[in-house]
Amino acid sequence: MEDLRWGIIGCGDVTEVKSGPAFNKVPHSSLVAVMRRDAEKAADYAKRHNVPGWYTDADALINDPNVNAIYVATPPSSHADYAIKAMRAGKPVYVEKPMALNTAECEAMNQVSRETGVPLFVAFYRRALPYFLKVKQLVDEQVIGDIRAVLIELNWQPDEREVGAQPNWRVSPTVSGGGLFHDLAAHQFDFLDYLLGPVKSASGVARNQAGLYAADDMVVATFAFESGVVGTGSWCFTVNKEQRIEQTQLIGSKGKITFSFFENFTITVDTAAGTETSTVPFPEHVQQPLIELIVNDLRGKSQSPSTGETGARTSRVLDWITTA
C-alpha cells in the first residue's frame, strides 16, 4: 500500500484524542470515514474532526471502496466479528485492546489473518511510546543487571461511572471479557511481553468482593516468563482514594526500576550508585507512534511491534489468571 485511507468502526471516547486525530498526522495516512450506530453522534464526530464520510452501518464502511484499512474501536465483544469481516474484505485491521473477549476469539481472528494474508494489528501502543521505550532501553542496557522479578501493584477506588444504575461497559464481562483487570492489566502484560519476552505460565485468583458490579474487582496473580523471569501482581479496584497506588518494579541483580503504566511519567532507577529519576511525557495522541509504525509496516518500510499474534498472547495470560 502506498497511502492508507482509514475507516473507524466505533468512533467513541478513545478515538477523540488518543487515536482518531493521529491518522491524519501520520505521513501517507488519512481518516476518510467513521461509523457509529447513532447517526447524530457519527455525523457530529465527522464534522468536528473534518472526516469526509460517516456511516451507521459497519458493513457499509467496510465495503466503502475509498476505505482501504479499518480501525475497530468498539468494545471487545464485537472486535472479532468486525475484524474478521474487514480482513475477509481484504482490508488490514487495527483493533483496540483487549484484542477480543478471550483467547479463542483472538485465535479465530489470527486464523483469518493467516488464511487471507491480510495484516492484523492491536492497539497496544505502549510498545511505541517514548516513556516505555526508555524503560526498555534501561533493561536492554542492563542498567540494573539481569532481571529477576516483576512486581505489579495497582489499587484504585471505584469510579462513579462503574457503579451507577447502568455501569460502564468495562465492568460488564459479556462486553469487555472481564472487568477493569482485563482493561488495564492487558496493557501491563503486553508491554512486559515486549520487554521480557512471552509469559509461559500464569495463575491467579479473581474475586468480586464488593459486589458493585458483575465483574471481578480483586485479582492476584503469579506468572513466569520463558526467559526465566518471575512475577507477581495485585489489582484491587475498591479501595479508598487514600490507598490509591499504581506502580511496577523490575527487580534486577544490580538494582531496581520503578515505573508507572497509567499514573505518572517518572522512571526511577535504584542501584548501588544511588537513585536516578527521569521524566518522559506522553505525546498528545498516545497512539500516534504505533499508528505510524503500522502505516510503515503496511507500506513495506518496517515492522510493527504489536500484531495479532502478540495481542493473542496477552489475552491468553489474562485468561490463565482469571479462569483458574
Q: What's the topology here?
A:
Layout: E1 4-9, H1 13-16, E2 29-35, H2 39-48, E3 53-55, H3 58-62, E4 69-72, H4 79-88, E5 93-95, H5 103-116, E6 120-122, H6 130-140, E7 147-155, H7 160-163, H8 173-176, H9 180-196, E8 199-207, E9 218-225, E10 230-236, E11 245-252, E12 255-259, E13 266-271, E14 274-279, H10 288-298, H11 308-322
Parallel strand pairs: 1-2, 1-4, 2-3, 4-5, 5-6, 7-10
Antiparallel strand pairs: 7-11, 8-9, 9-10, 11-12, 12-13, 13-14
Helix pairs in contact: 4-5, 5-11, 9-11
In short:
The chain has helices at 13-16, 39-48, 58-62, 79-88, 103-116, 130-140, 160-163, 173-176, 180-196, 288-298, 308-322, and strands at residues 4-9, 29-35, 53-55, 69-72, 93-95, 120-122, 147-155, 199-207, 218-225, 230-236, 245-252, 255-259, 266-271, 274-279.
Low-pLDDT stretches are none
Distance from N terminus to C terminus (CA atoms, Å) equals: 43 Å
Mean pLDDT across all amino acids: 96
Question: What is the strand arrangement across the widest sheet?
Answer: 8-9-10-7-11-12-13-14
Number of strands: 14
N-to-C SSE string, H for helix and E for strand = EHEHEHEHEHEHEHHHEEEEEEEHH
Structural class: alpha/beta
Helical content (DSSP H or I, runs of 4+) = 25-40%
Level-1 CATH class name of the largest domain: Alpha Beta
Stated plainly, the CATH topology of the largest domain is called Dihydrodipicolinate Reductase, domain 2
Total of DSSP H or I helical runs spanning 4+ residues: 11
- Whole-number tally of structural domains: 2
Describe the main β-sheet briefly. Answer: 8 strands, mixed
Shape: globular
- The amount of beta strand, in percent, is 25-35%
Examine the secondary-structure arrangement and name the CATH architecture of the largest domain.
2-Layer Sandwich
Calculate Rg over CA atoms: 20 Å
